[in-house]
Design goal:
- About 70% of the residues lie in helices and about 5% in strands.
- The longest helix has 25 residues.
- The protein has about 290 residues and is mostly helical.
């Protein structure tokens, strides 16, 4: 099997987290290959800015799709490496408490919130207005939303940090937010503002989720509709009667998720008191969704 076949298979069979990572990497490679070609022929690339989110409202109105495309755009290797690693680490942990569809929903709504924070600040706050127009790119706001949502859901969960040791994820989230807050007047002010927008939406998502409300449900439905659209256009007739009969109501789904989250909390408390080795095989499977 060729490398291409391996990648295609991995993408098709991988989780939604895997797909998000692949999309970010593919966008990075594609955009940077184009930029290399334009540099070699000594011509400025005219369309890359149409994928980044502009702070100028007139430019944004002409290119509204940038509120989505910017969150998959990276031009720096270090930038995408850090974002992909954070997405991978916290994405796996996120799916311990939530599901894959919620991961995509929080990624998208976190990016939207970050973009809106950026637009509002650069058009309402005098400090940013005087600095002129700029562009926003990167998945940082989306990743920040995932980090904060995970921390709010299970603040006492601990991870091992090289050279530091075990640390609660709530402190990772707090440190990340604090760094962004202190950086809103730095050279990366736009990015730090976007981080704060993502953090806020991640916090709201987790808090509402604990109450039984899923604020990214509409995004999940929209994505489902977009995925099913080609199927609806097909001439093939498929009966969904049995599937509809088995589909959960919102109340049943929320009750099942609450039961699952309560069990995860019990397992985490057990780890806290007796260590990871005290878990049974079944408890470990439940913790990691296997």
């Amino acid at each position: 099997m060729s490398l291409k076949d391996d990648i295609v298979k991995s993408f098709k069979e991988g989780s939604l987290l895997t797909k998000l990572i692949y999309v970010n990497i593919a966008a990075f490679v594609f955009v940077n290959l184009i930029l290399v070609v334009y540099k070699l022929i000594q011509i400025e690339c005219p369309w890359v800015n149409f994928l980044m989110l502009p702070s100028d409202l007139n430019a944004f109105i002409l290119h509204p799709w940038t509120i989505i495309t910017y969150m998959f755009m990276h031009t720096s290797f270090i930038h995408i490496l850090f974002n992909v690693l954070m997405l991978y680490w916290f994405g796996q942990l996120f799916m311990t408490f939530f599901n894959q569809r919620d991961l995509v929903g929080v990624y998208v709504i976190g990016g939207l919130a970050g973009g809106l924070f950026y637009l509002l600040a650069f058009n309402l706050v005098p400090y940013y207005i005087q600095h002129g127009s700029s562009y926003l790119l990167g998945a940082s706001a989306s990743v920040m939303a995932i980090v904060v949502a995970t921390a709010v859901m299970s603040p006492d969960y601990q991870v091992r940090i090289p050279l530091i040791g075990m640390i609660k994820i709530e402190w990772i989230a707090v440190a990340s937010v604090l760094i962004s807050l202190l950086g809103i007047t730095s050279t990366n002010a736009g990015g730090e503002l976007a981080h704060l927008g993502g953090a806020l939406i991640g916090y709201i998502f987790a808090k509402e989720y604990k109450k039984g409300t899923n604020i990214v449900g509409w995004i999940n439905k929209l994505i489902d509709w977009l995925v099913d659209l080609p199927k609806k256009k097909s001439k093939m007739k498929v009966s969904y009667e049995n599937q509809s009969a088995q589909r959960e109501t919102d109340a049943e789904y929320n009750a099942r998720k609450k039961q699952h989250n309560d069990e995860i909390d019990r397992i985490l408390d057990k780890i806290k008191q007796s260590g990871y080795d005290s878990l049974s095989d079944n408890e470990r499977k439940q913790l990691f969704g296997k």
